[in-house]
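Lecture 7 notes: from sequence to structure.

We start with a single chain of 229 residues. Read the sequence below before looking at the structure.
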Amino acid sequence: MDKKLLSHYTLFDNQTILSCNLLAHQGYCNENHIITTDKNKYLLRKLLRDDIDRQNEYKIHHLAYNEGITAAPLLYDEVNEIMIFAFLEGKHKETLDAHELKGLAEVLKKLHNIEYGGSPIPLEIQNHTETITKALTTIEKYPKEYVLCHNDLNPKNIFFSHDIKFIDWEYAGVNDRYFDLACICVEFSLDEEMQEIFLKAYFSKRYSKEKLESYKIIYKTLCEEWFKT
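Now the structure, written as C-alpha cells:
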C-alpha cells in the first residue's frame, strides 16, 4: 500500500506513517494491512470484490459500532476502494467456554436488536439434495424472525479481549436470526451441552431446536459451496 496515498487522508494529519504491512492469509474479499503511525495503529482493507455493496457494508459497520460491538470505522474511500478502521487488540478462538459463549450471545443480541431496513437475503443453494429440501421445508414451518445479521460469524471474524467484537461486515444484512445462531454452533463445534448454554443465554423465551438444526444444515451446505468456487 502506497504511503504517499495514505498521507493525503486527513485521518493522518499530525501523524507520521511509519509502516503499512500486509497481513498474509487474512480475508478472501479484501487485502488487510496494518498501518502504524507515531501515535496509533489502524487496520486498512483494500477491497477486492466488486459484487459486494460496500456502501451498505460501511453503513452497517457504523450501526454496529454505535452499539459497541465492532471497531471504529474511520474512512471509506470509494474511488480507491479502501476502508480504514481502528485497530482491535484481541485474539481469535477456536473453542469457547461457557462464560465466553454467554458473552457471545449478549453481543449477538445487540446486533440483532439494531434497527435496520432492507430486504431479506435469499437462501441461494445450488445443490438441492433431499436433505437440503427437507431442511428448507422445516424452516418454512416456522415464523420468519428477520433481524440484522452478520451472516459470517466464523472464528476469524470474532475478536476476544476484555470484551467481544465482530469484524468483516461485507455479508451483513437482513436474515433470520437462526442463521447467525446456526453459524456459531457450527463454527465452534458446539456439543449439545454447550449449544444449550449458548441458546439459553441468547433467548429469553423458548426456541426451536428443529429450526436451528435445519439452519445448521443450510449453513454447512453454503460453506461447502463457497469453498468450491
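The domain at 98-228 is CATH 3.90.1200.10 (Aminoglycoside 3'-phosphotransferase; Chain: A, domain 2). Keep this in mind for problem set 3.
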